[in-house]
Amino acid sequence: MPKSHSKETEDLRIFQIIDANLDRAREGLRVIEDWARFGLGENDFVTKIKNFRQILGKNHLEVYKQSRNYIEDECKGLTHEEQSNRKTPEQIISSNAGRIQEALRVIEEYSRLHNNELSKIASEIRYEIYTIEIDLLSYSKCKKSEKILRENDLYVITDQKDNLLEIIEEILIAGVRIIQHRFKTGTDKDHLQEAIQIKNLCKKYNSLFIVNDRVDIALASNADGIHLGQDDLDLKTARKILGYSKIVGISANNAIDISNALKDGCDYIGIGPVFETTTKKNKKPLGIENIKTLTKDLNIPWFAIGGIKSNNISYLKRNGFKKVALVSQLMNSEDPKDDAIMILKELSHEN
Questions:
Q1: Nearest to 120 by CA among 59, 45, 65
Q2: Residue 102's domain is classified under what CATH number?
Q3: Which pTM was predicted?
Q4: How far apart (Å, rounded) are the C-alpha atoms in residues 7 and 29?
Q5: Does an H or E element contain 6, and which?
Q6: Adjacent-strand bridge partners of 210
Q7: Which residue among 72, 220, 271, 288 is least packed, with the fewest CB closer than 10 Å?
Q8: Same domain, yes or no, for 65 and 94?
Q9: For 312, which DSSP code?
Q10: Which domain holds residue 124?
Q11: CA distance linking residue 167 with residue 161, whole number of Å
């Protein structure tokens, strides 16, 4: 075979490889773009990903397309069993991000021989996709957590108990979907081990696990979020450490603290104490009317806390309080599951 003919044949095969992988990369980009658009409503991501598609489209030269049927693809239509195992948007995002990265790597390598500009473009987009994948997964996780916060009205805070894990599982079985864990006595090693156990329980029941105060343990246990008091680490620093996949809640009992929490981007607020409580003996109750004033313009989830029990929930609901946080009633209950079911029913009852 003449050398020139051999070179043309090699070129056509390379063009066919580039053509196939440009198609793969653009298809994968469209999959993650649509999730960013319709699943997350994140316009910045949509614009960026769409721009990548357009750049690759512009560089999908006619010579690549013309090579498409040069050699019959014997592997056309092959699938893998893992494709049917993608059951969540997050799995779809990860698999398609991987597909894009692989396709761009192939383009980068093969186009370097004929089209150095396309090789550089493929390399630059590939590195961008690594970051976009992580960001999309983080936003997806945060959206799920925000949805649980919006849709669930009972927020349970733990207390130190010998059978704490049993109590938590009972109330999770009852339908509680938000657990905040407060650490009492013990070492940090003990606290982390306990946090991981509670996190695993919450994950089993599709519930949020929020750590009180301890950002380090929240991070180490892969908690869904952190709850901070006014004397704890500031919200901006906590967000910098935890990232945007975690939710951050704030305790507040006056207009200035609420305003600051909103300005700094908190995801929910705990407001109280509503009534006198043994948990916060040194804090004066805010009272119903004061809390009404503080929350009248709030557009993020907020939970009333302090002295709330099953016998005053209907009173709170009549005054427009939809979400409550409980500590002692469920932690000290002889039947936490039944009590939790009763409270959830009371909260869901329309006055």
A1: 59
A2: 1.20.1260
A3: 0.77
A4: 33
A5: helix 3-34
A6: 180, 225
A7: 72
A8: yes
A9: G
A10: 3-144
A11: 9
Q: What angle do CA 158, 349, 333 make, to 5 degrees?
A: 30
Q: What is the CATH number of the domain that holds 325?
A: 3.20.20.70
The amino acid that residue 233 corresponds to is L
Q: Which residues are within 8 A (CB) of 221 and not within 5 positions of it... i.e. 6 or more apart?
A: 192, 195, 196, 199, 209, 211
Residue 213: name the closest of 246, 235, 243 by CA. 235
Other residues' Cβ atoms within 10 Å of the Cβ of residue 349:
10
Retrieve residue 306's tokens.
């302090």
**255 and 110 in one domain?**
no
CA 127/CA 104 separation, integer angstroms: 10
Sequence-distant (≥ 6) Cβ neighbours of residue 270 within 8 angstroms: 155, 227, 249, 250, 251, 252, 302, 303, 305, 325
* Cα separation, 97 vs 86, whole angstroms: 13
Successive 10-residue mean pLDDT values, the chain, 351 residues = 60 93 97 94 93 97 87 56 68 95 97 94 96 90 91 95 95 97 90 96 96 96 96 93 92 95 95 82 86 94 93 92 92 94 88 53
Helices (H), 163-214: 164-174, 188-204
